[in-house]
Amino acid sequence: MKPIIGIAGNLLTKHAEVFHDNLVTYTPQGFVDGVQQANGLPLVFPIGNPADAKAYIDQIDGLLLAGGQDVAPSFYGAEPSLKLQETEPRRDFFEKALIEEALKQKKPIFAVCRGIQILNSVQGGTLYQDLSEYPQWSVQHLQPSIPTVGSHSVSIDSKSHLASLLGTSVLVNSYHHQAIKELATDFVATAWSTDGLVEAYEAKDPAQSIVAVQWHPELMQATDEKMQGLFNDFIERASH
Ligand SMILES: [Mn+2]
Protein backbone atom coordinates (compact mmCIF):
# COMPACT_ATOMS: atom_id res chain seq x y z
CA MET A 1 0.00 0.00 0.00
CA LYS A 2 1.36 3.40 -0.93
CA PRO A 3 1.26 5.88 1.97
CA ILE A 4 -1.37 8.55 1.44
CA ILE A 5 -0.03 12.07 1.85
CA GLY A 6 -2.50 14.86 2.55
CA ILE A 7 -1.29 18.12 1.03
CA ALA A 8 -2.92 21.24 2.49
CA GLY A 9 -3.97 23.07 -0.66
CA ASN A 10 -4.20 26.76 -1.42
CA LEU A 11 -6.80 29.02 -2.99
CA LEU A 12 -5.82 31.23 -5.90
CA THR A 13 -7.40 34.45 -4.72
CA LYS A 14 -5.96 36.72 -7.39
CA HIS A 15 -8.29 36.36 -10.35
CA ALA A 16 -6.33 34.72 -13.16
CA GLU A 17 -7.30 35.24 -16.78
CA VAL A 18 -6.34 31.67 -17.70
CA PHE A 19 -9.09 30.44 -15.31
CA HIS A 20 -11.59 33.03 -16.59
CA ASP A 21 -11.34 34.85 -13.23
CA ASN A 22 -12.74 31.81 -11.38
CA LEU A 23 -11.27 30.94 -7.98
CA VAL A 24 -9.04 27.86 -8.15
CA THR A 25 -7.81 25.36 -5.54
CA TYR A 26 -4.22 24.27 -6.16
CA THR A 27 -0.91 23.03 -4.88
CA PRO A 28 2.46 23.60 -6.57
CA GLN A 29 3.28 20.66 -8.87
CA GLY A 30 6.65 19.99 -7.19
CA PHE A 31 4.86 18.66 -4.09
CA VAL A 32 2.85 16.24 -6.23
CA ASP A 33 5.97 15.16 -8.16
CA GLY A 34 8.06 14.78 -5.00
CA VAL A 35 5.45 12.58 -3.29
CA GLN A 36 4.76 10.50 -6.41
CA GLN A 37 8.46 9.94 -7.13
CA ALA A 38 8.87 8.73 -3.55
CA ASN A 39 6.06 6.21 -4.14
CA GLY A 40 3.48 8.06 -2.07
CA LEU A 41 -0.09 8.90 -3.04
CA PRO A 42 -0.73 12.67 -2.90
CA LEU A 43 -4.18 13.87 -1.90
CA VAL A 44 -4.76 17.64 -2.06
CA PHE A 45 -7.08 19.09 0.59
CA PRO A 46 -8.98 22.22 -0.40
CA ILE A 47 -9.27 24.90 2.30
CA GLY A 48 -12.28 23.78 4.32
CA ASN A 49 -14.14 23.76 7.58
CA PRO A 50 -11.80 23.25 10.57
CA ALA A 51 -14.46 20.91 11.99
CA ASP A 52 -13.66 18.49 9.13
CA ALA A 53 -9.96 18.22 10.01
CA LYS A 54 -10.33 14.90 11.83
CA ALA A 55 -12.18 13.34 8.88
CA TYR A 56 -9.31 14.42 6.60
CA ILE A 57 -6.45 13.39 8.90
CA ASP A 58 -8.10 9.99 9.59
CA GLN A 59 -7.58 9.14 5.91
CA ILE A 60 -3.88 9.96 5.56
CA ASP A 61 -0.47 8.62 6.61
CA GLY A 62 1.33 11.97 6.54
CA LEU A 63 0.53 15.69 6.35
CA LEU A 64 2.40 18.03 4.01
CA LEU A 65 2.20 21.76 4.78
CA ALA A 66 2.99 23.79 1.67
CA GLY A 67 4.10 27.35 0.98
CA GLY A 68 1.99 30.41 0.32
CA GLN A 69 0.58 33.43 2.11
CA ASP A 70 1.86 35.07 5.28
CA VAL A 71 0.40 33.67 8.49
CA ALA A 72 -1.99 36.14 10.13
CA PRO A 73 -0.03 37.85 12.96
CA SER A 74 -3.01 37.38 15.28
CA PHE A 75 -2.01 33.70 15.31
CA TYR A 76 1.09 34.59 17.33
CA GLY A 77 -0.28 37.56 19.23
CA ALA A 78 1.13 40.35 17.05
CA GLU A 79 -0.33 43.30 15.19
CA PRO A 80 0.28 43.47 11.42
CA SER A 81 3.48 45.33 10.62
CA LEU A 82 3.81 47.67 7.63
CA LYS A 83 5.49 45.04 5.46
CA LEU A 84 3.10 42.17 6.12
CA GLN A 85 1.90 40.69 2.81
CA GLU A 86 -1.31 38.89 1.86
CA THR A 87 -2.83 36.60 4.49
CA GLU A 88 -5.62 34.03 4.09
CA PRO A 89 -7.29 33.50 7.49
CA ARG A 90 -9.51 30.67 6.21
CA ARG A 91 -6.37 28.74 5.28
CA ASP A 92 -4.75 29.58 8.65
CA PHE A 93 -7.71 28.24 10.63
CA PHE A 94 -8.09 25.11 8.49
CA GLU A 95 -4.37 24.29 8.64
CA LYS A 96 -4.35 24.93 12.41
CA ALA A 97 -7.05 22.28 12.76
CA LEU A 98 -5.18 19.87 10.44
CA ILE A 99 -1.95 20.37 12.42
CA GLU A 100 -3.61 19.86 15.80
CA GLU A 101 -5.32 16.67 14.61
CA ALA A 102 -2.15 15.32 12.93
CA LEU A 103 -0.18 15.91 16.15
CA LYS A 104 -2.94 14.26 18.18
CA GLN A 105 -2.83 11.20 15.89
CA LYS A 106 1.00 11.36 15.75
CA LYS A 107 0.96 11.37 11.94
CA PRO A 108 4.25 12.45 10.33
CA ILE A 109 4.49 16.06 9.11
CA PHE A 110 6.65 17.62 6.41
CA ALA A 111 6.42 21.42 6.52
CA VAL A 112 7.78 23.74 3.83
CA CYS A 113 8.21 27.55 3.89
CA ARG A 114 4.83 28.87 5.09
CA GLY A 115 4.41 25.37 6.53
CA ILE A 116 7.35 25.79 8.94
CA GLN A 117 5.89 29.15 9.96
CA ILE A 118 2.28 28.13 10.59
CA LEU A 119 3.33 24.96 12.43
CA ASN A 120 5.51 27.10 14.72
CA SER A 121 2.70 29.66 15.18
CA VAL A 122 0.09 27.02 16.01
CA GLN A 123 2.39 25.52 18.67
CA GLY A 124 3.05 28.85 20.37
CA GLY A 125 6.06 30.25 18.50
CA THR A 126 6.32 33.65 16.80
CA LEU A 127 7.46 35.00 13.41
CA TYR A 128 9.40 37.90 11.97
CA GLN A 129 6.82 39.58 9.75
CA ASP A 130 9.43 40.97 7.36
CA LEU A 131 13.16 40.31 7.57
CA SER A 132 14.05 43.69 6.04
CA GLU A 133 12.81 45.33 9.24
CA TYR A 134 15.70 43.71 11.14
CA PRO A 135 19.26 44.68 10.09
CA GLN A 136 20.83 41.63 11.77
CA TRP A 137 19.42 39.36 9.03
CA SER A 138 22.11 40.06 6.49
CA VAL A 139 21.78 37.06 4.19
CA GLN A 140 19.51 37.46 1.16
CA HIS A 141 16.48 35.27 1.89
CA LEU A 142 14.42 36.38 -1.12
CA GLN A 143 16.54 35.28 -4.05
CA PRO A 144 15.88 36.92 -7.43
CA SER A 145 17.32 33.90 -9.30
CA ILE A 146 15.63 30.68 -10.44
CA PRO A 147 14.34 28.33 -7.72
CA THR A 148 15.92 25.09 -8.97
CA VAL A 149 19.32 26.25 -7.72
CA GLY A 150 20.26 26.97 -4.12
CA SER A 151 21.47 30.45 -3.20
CA HIS A 152 22.46 30.47 0.48
CA SER A 153 24.04 27.82 2.64
CA VAL A 154 22.62 26.34 5.82
CA SER A 155 24.57 24.53 8.51
CA ILE A 156 22.80 21.52 9.95
CA ASP A 157 23.11 20.07 13.46
CA SER A 158 25.07 16.85 12.98
CA LYS A 159 22.87 15.06 15.55
CA SER A 160 19.63 15.89 13.72
CA HIS A 161 17.55 13.64 11.52
CA LEU A 162 17.97 16.27 8.79
CA ALA A 163 21.76 15.83 8.83
CA SER A 164 21.31 12.11 8.13
CA LEU A 165 19.58 13.18 4.89
CA LEU A 166 21.52 16.26 3.81
CA GLY A 167 24.82 16.22 5.69
CA THR A 168 25.93 19.13 7.87
CA SER A 169 25.97 21.80 5.16
CA VAL A 170 23.85 22.30 2.06
CA LEU A 171 22.93 25.03 -0.40
CA VAL A 172 19.21 25.87 -0.35
CA ASN A 173 16.94 28.14 -2.34
CA SER A 174 15.30 30.96 -0.41
CA TYR A 175 11.96 32.65 -1.08
CA HIS A 176 10.83 33.93 2.27
CA HIS A 177 10.47 37.43 3.67
CA GLN A 178 9.20 36.05 6.99
CA ALA A 179 10.95 33.62 9.33
CA ILE A 180 10.92 31.93 12.73
CA LYS A 181 11.42 34.43 15.57
CA GLU A 182 10.80 32.48 18.77
CA LEU A 183 10.70 28.74 18.18
CA ALA A 184 7.84 26.90 19.90
CA THR A 185 9.06 24.91 22.91
CA ASP A 186 7.92 21.62 21.30
CA PHE A 187 10.57 22.01 18.60
CA VAL A 188 14.36 22.04 18.32
CA ALA A 189 16.15 24.01 15.60
CA THR A 190 18.25 21.83 13.30
CA ALA A 191 19.55 24.20 10.59
CA TRP A 192 20.57 27.85 10.37
CA SER A 193 21.67 30.26 7.65
CA THR A 194 25.01 32.01 8.32
CA ASP A 195 23.21 35.04 9.79
CA GLY A 196 21.74 32.70 12.43
CA LEU A 197 18.16 32.47 11.19
CA VAL A 198 16.37 29.17 11.89
CA GLU A 199 16.00 27.33 8.56
CA ALA A 200 14.76 23.94 9.86
CA TYR A 201 13.44 22.26 13.00
CA GLU A 202 12.26 18.89 14.29
CA ALA A 203 10.08 17.71 17.18
CA LYS A 204 11.56 17.22 20.65
CA ASP A 205 9.07 14.41 21.34
CA PRO A 206 10.44 11.25 19.68
CA ALA A 207 6.83 10.07 19.24
CA GLN A 208 6.27 12.94 16.76
CA SER A 209 7.88 12.68 13.32
CA ILE A 210 8.35 16.23 12.02
CA VAL A 211 10.71 17.76 9.47
CA ALA A 212 10.14 21.46 8.83
CA VAL A 213 12.26 23.49 6.40
CA GLN A 214 12.21 27.16 5.43
CA TRP A 215 13.36 26.58 1.85
CA HIS A 216 11.52 24.98 -1.11
CA PRO A 217 12.66 21.39 -1.76
CA GLU A 218 9.67 20.96 -4.11
CA LEU A 219 11.30 23.43 -6.52
CA MET A 220 14.66 21.62 -6.39
CA GLN A 221 13.65 17.94 -6.27
CA ALA A 222 13.55 17.45 -10.05
CA THR A 223 17.25 18.21 -10.39
CA ASP A 224 18.65 17.69 -6.88
CA GLU A 225 18.68 14.16 -5.41
CA LYS A 226 19.19 15.43 -1.87
CA MET A 227 16.02 17.52 -2.04
CA GLN A 228 14.03 14.59 -3.48
CA GLY A 229 15.55 12.72 -0.54
CA LEU A 230 13.45 14.84 1.84
CA PHE A 231 10.32 13.53 0.08
CA ASN A 232 11.67 9.96 0.12
CA ASP A 233 12.28 10.32 3.85
CA PHE A 234 8.77 11.69 4.42
CA ILE A 235 7.18 8.74 2.62
CA GLU A 236 9.42 6.42 4.64
CA ARG A 237 8.32 8.11 7.88
CA ALA A 238 4.68 7.88 6.75
CA SER A 239 5.06 4.14 6.09
CA HIS A 240 5.31 3.18 9.76
MN1 LIG B 1 16.50 31.42 3.71
Tell me the layout of helices and strands.
Blueprint: E1 4-8, E2 10-12, E3 24-26, H1 29-37, E4 41-45, H2 53-58, E5 62-65, H3 89-104, E6 109-112, H4 114-122, E7 127-128, E8 152-156, H5 161-166, E9 169-172, E10 179-180, E11 187-193, E12 198-203, E13 210-213, H6 225-238
Parallel strand pairs: 1-4, 1-5, 5-6, 6-13
Antiparallel strand pairs: 2-3, 7-10, 8-9, 8-11, 11-12, 12-13
The protein binds manganese (II) ion.
The site of manganese (II) ion (MN) has 8 residues, from loops.
Summarize the structure.
GO terms for molecular function: gamma-glutamyl-gamma-aminobutyrate hydrolase activity; transferase activity. This protein is α/β, with parallel strands linked by helices. It has helices spanning 29-37, 53-58, 89-104, 114-122, 161-166, 225-238; strands spanning 4-8, 10-12, 24-26, 41-45, 62-65, 109-112, 127-128, 152-156, 169-172, 179-180, 187-193, 198-203, 210-213.
Care to describe what's here?
The chain has 240 residues and is an alpha/beta fold. The protein has one domain: Class I glutamine amidotransferase (GATase) domain (Rossmann fold, 3-Layer(aba) Sandwich). Helix content is 25%, strand content 22%. It has 6 helices and 13 strands. A hairpin with a 4-residue loop joins strand 11 and strand 12. The radius of gyration is 17 Å and the shape is globular. It comes from Carnobacterium divergens DSM 20623. Keywords: Glutamine amidotransferase, Transferase. This is Glutamine amidotransferase, class I. GO terms for molecular function: gamma-glutamyl-gamma-aminobutyrate hydrolase activity; transferase activity.
